[in-house]
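Why do we care about 3D structure at all? Because function follows from shape, and shape follows, mostly, from sequence. That is the central idea of this module. The next example makes it concrete: a single protein chain, its amino acid sequence, and then its structure expressed as tokens.
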Amino acid sequence: MQNRISKLFDTKLPIVQAGMIWASGWRLASAVSDAGGLGMLGAGSMYPEVLREHIQKCRAATTHPFAVNIPLLYPDIDQHMRILIEEGVRIVFTSAGNPKTWTPMLKEKGITVVHVVSSSKFAQKAEEAGCDAVVAEGFEAGGHNGREETTTLVLVPAVVNAVKIPVIAAGGIANGRQMLATMVLGAEGVQLGSRFVASEEASSHPDFKAKVIGAGEGDTILTMKQLTPVRLIKNKFYEEVQKAELRGADTEELKRLLGRARAKKGMFEGDLNEGELEIGQVSALVDSILPASEIVKKLWQEFQEALENPIKIR
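And the structure:
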């Protein structure tokens, strides 16, 4: 399928694997790219030299395009950007920050830049900054999220109406029928995170993957809104955060409770009680751990079937 997104990334399919922290290493990114989508390295959980290693290993593992996601709120951002340029990365997704800060420099180097947004206002700012496309990520998504709490069903058409650059839908997408729904709303591609966390190649801990496929409706929640909103699975750590917020804890107390490496503890080391377990609402529809290539293949088949028969009558 050729449209503005697949042409922009030089991929067979308009399917993007999100750069989830502690899950999106070179094995997952290269597998998705080989399957026809756009694989992505999640630099948010990588020290600069670790990022360099993953870029080099991903390039050695696939001949197809891949991207790197850079959360702009993370430390070492200068070093990350320098490594992207030195390693010749061609596609960069930025998130959690002002796209005007880095987009002009990246564009000068000939890099395709996509920014993740949670509102049409921020989408327009990304377009003004020179971004080639935006990811419209709804409130359903896992990990760090927008304060607006706008759902994908509302956000995607609002962003499509607000900008001329192509829009990639994200948040609450795990199957082909959901992909078709967002395309009908005007998106030209989709980005999946939670579905790829439950893949064989994801670098997240097996216990976390099992927790994801065992999640049901209502098992995730958007919390820590006083700091940076994040959607995660309810567990002991979440209960501690909730108690602190209910008694009126200030941001400093919440920062101390969050501490360091809380996400690593949960998603990478597999501490399901004390760790931060970031995942989206759509985990309730994910019930199996599959090879990344099978996820891409199944998603595309479901999309084609839904396109041919959009009304499914039971």
